[in-house]
Amino acid sequence: MSNKGRTLIRMGLLGLTCGIILCAGPASARFRQAQVTIGQGPSSVVCTNGPSFNLRATDGHISVPDGNSIYMWTFAEVGGPFQVPSPVLCVDEGATVTVNLTNELAEPVSIIFPGHVGVNTTGGTPGLFTAEAPPAGSVTYSFVASEPGTYLYESGTEPRKQIEMGLHGALIVRPSLGANYAYNDAATEFDPGREYLMLLHDIDHNLHQAVEWGEPYDYTTTRDYYWTINGRAFPDTLAPNSVAWLPAQPYSALLVVEPYDATTNPLPILLRYLNAGLQNHPFHLHGNYTRIIAQDGRLLRGSGSEDTSYQSFTQTIGSGQTYDVFMRWTDVDGWATQSTPIPVDIPDLTNLFFHNAMTTWSGEVPLGEQGDVPVGVTVHNICGEYYLIAHSHALNEIQNFDEGMGGMTTFLRVDPPGGCMPVP
Amino acid sequence: MRARATTIIGLGLIFAAMALLLIAVPALAEPQSNPAEARQAEPVRAAPLGATVSVDLCAKAGTLTLPDSTVVDTWGFAIKPASVACTDVSVQAQVPGPLLEFTAGDSISITLHNALAEQASIVFPGQDLMPDHVGAAPGGSVAYSFTVDEPGTYLYESGTFSDTTAAVQVAMGLYGPLVVRPTTAGQAYGTPASAYDREAVLVLSEIDPDLHANPTTFNLLDYSPQYWLISGKAYPETDPILALPEERVLLRYVNAGLWNHTLTVLGMHQTVIAVDAYVKNYPHEAVSLIIPSGQTWDSIATLPAGAPFGTSFPLYSRNLFLSNENTFPGGMMTFITYDPTLLPYRNYLGLGM
Questions:
Q1: Is B350 on the interface with A (CB under 8 A)?
Q2: Does the domain formed by B3-41+49-181 have CATH 2.60.40.420?
Q3: Which member of A117, A316, A318 has the closest CB to residue B268?
Q4: Which CATH number fits domain B192-349: 2.60.40.420, 3.30.465.10, 3.40.1010.10, 2.40.128.630?
Q5: Which of B193, B225, B262 shows the shortest C-beta gap to A319?
Q6: For A106-157, how does the pLDDT look when each residue is reduced to its tens digit (9 = 90+)?
Q7: Residue of B265, B285, B300 best to disrupt the A interface, most CBs of A under 10 A
Q8: What pLDDT does residue A338 have?
Q9: Which residues of A touch B322 (CB under 8 A)?
Q10: What ipTM did this prediction achieve?
């Protein structure tokens, strides 16, 4: 999509959304373009399948919605593009995972696999936490993915710097029970088309700029200015996977759910939270409770297999933690598709901010082209779906630099029963 | 004198002798000098002895030297030997304060002798006594009596918030760990799920040198730590935790800092068995733990079988406070290290290998 499209989406989002409580669907129009593959929604987890991976530590830039671009490091696939976050590595339980890491950066890098036992290294040079790949060198890690679940993989070399720079990603171990189960437990079956990555990160762009320019940085003065989910800051979090205007940020963070029905829609959606950032982030969904079924790749069960999962509407995702979370939409608001007005007032046009009738909200040409709002953008709620905000409840984190709202925010889209045909 | 009382006095002397060295118990170099080991060689007791234990503590000024040779002024607790004044140079303030160890059922009498230039007190979160926020005047003393009923990992700290200093006494160093042991040796809570082979007390805190330089005028709104400590030490001076493969290491986290801290162990999961000395009905496994300020967590990390000699498993702040001021590596980090020179523990305890 062109810059124009992106700009228009932002206009719509900023203008027409958002009491923090509830948002009607201005973002919907652009989802019409997305292709749905069977069992996979346009914002679902995108797996890079293993068990052998060839990664390269490399650099590039990401885009944030206030117009800034941030220098990042990442583990990209050899032969693949620079991307943030690093690829989601998916393997089956019991597989021997092999990661060959080649270093294209000017300092040593490494990968640690928290939650995994007996990681063997081949080659490289000794480091503080694990073997490292020197500049232009390589190292190989291998281990058996013995337990299913959601895990981080991240730099073990000067992690204060390298993890923030972007050297981190998600590792999903599929249970032997089947890929549509989170764990080897029949109660952990989820809707296979509704599996979502929620990889949280926090960024002080001053560090990134210092690294890019080879200048010193005082870590004791860190202050974050950007907060991302899956490498994107709101409203970019809403765009589908792999949109053309975010070439280095392929992963969507839009959550989609349909009302629970014991017969036609019995399965929950699965959210895989991971916090690669330095701060703990209290993540908060509106509308329904979520059920926390696992932490750090371990199903919550007592020693006698008692179900020790629990519900919360805010879950603090600590640094380095992962949580697997189920959600069912049980229509707590009594909202009836197509018959009840959307419970939000569309703001009066006079309450919207435009610099002038021909200017994007930012007023910056690099952010988009000028022009009239096309007809399509005035279409809201095209199938009766509606949108609830889901965000860090550390509310300073739902902005981009000083521009709100943004940051660590996304939407939960509630579709009518049976799905939203025009909006897959 | 009863054998138990002798043991307690003996332990007290060890604490005094260890001064700043002691906290990560298994980190001591020689196994035979390890107080935990000595304790575990005792016969298992069937019932609480209900001993009466007296401890005399000093609160006094001291210093703490950080790995980059920065020296900060501190206020700390110290064991007061009988007939030695707190002001004597042989009594050195510790950060954190000495590990206070008791057995469930003991009657405790703690006397605080205040050698600071301002009012000081101790509160004992989780113990059954009225918290004291008044304490003793400079040169005075105050006594606390209570019974430790429940085993577990606790914190003791200053309860004084004066008009002149605000709540800086804890940040200055007036805090320490308090461990209540069940009558069954080798268990944290007298339950099979709390059985362990080695233990380490990890007191988490931070240092903002500006606060330590000007405690009476420092504005806590400006609190900005530059050093992050485990039991009073920053990496690379932190004590390693030594153990053998398949051994269960009890990690007693005590967050005495002003900030919450998130701690990660690589290469194994930790099983959380208690929070604030309250036993979890259903322990859960985790890689990374959020330890809020003022809270204690007990987890058991079992070293994987087959680890090569010398394998070190990082234990560190996942908030990545891994610098001393601006120098990496440092900060809140240590290692659980497979030390093949150790004697196996479980054989002592008869728990089977």
A1: no
A2: yes
A3: A117
A4: 2.60.40.420
A5: B262
A6: 999 999 999 999 999 999 999 999 999 999 999 999 999 999 999 999 999 9
A7: B285
A8: 57
A9: 159-160
A10: 0.84
- Which pLDDT does position B288 carry in this prediction? 98
- Residue of A161, A278, A295 with shortest CB distance to B284: A295
Residue B2, pLDDT > 70, answer no
Please give the helix or strand (H or E) that residue A163 lies within, else none: helix A159-165
Beta bridge partners of A121: A141
Residue A230's contacts (CB-CB under 8 Å, 6 or more residues apart) are A85, A197, A198, A199, A237, A249, A251, A252, A253
Cβ of B318 and A320 within 8 Å? yes
For chain B, how long is the longest CA-to-CA vector? 57
Residues 271-330 of A with CB under 8 A from B: 278-280, 295-298, 300-303, 306, 308, 316, 318-322
Which domains does chain A carry?
3-336+377-414 (2.60.40.420)
In 3D, which of B321, B153, B338 has the Cα closest to residue B243? B338
Please report which residue ranges of A195-275 form alpha helices under DSSP H. 205-213
**Residue A319 C-alpha, separation from nearest chain B C-alpha, in angstroms:** 6
User: Is residue B40 predicted with pLDDT exceeding 50?
Assistant: no
- Separation of alpha carbons B254 and B291, rounded Å: 8
State the average pLDDT for chain A. Answer: 84
| Residue B153 C-alpha, separation from nearest chain A C-alpha, in angstroms | 22
Residue A128 and residue B314: Cβ atoms within 8 Å? yes
The answer to whether A128 contacts chain B (CB < 8 Å) is yes
> Is B132 in CB contact (< 8 Å) with chain A?
no
Nearest to B286 among A156, A296, A308 (CB): A296
Q: What is the pLDDT of residues A397-422, one digit of tens each?
A: 999 998 888 999 999 998 888 887 66
| Interatomic CA distance for residues A76 and B330, integer angstroms | 29
How far is Cα A133 from Cα A154, in angstroms, rounded to an integer?
14
Q: What are the residue ranges spanned by the domains of chain B?
A: 3-41+49-181, 192-349
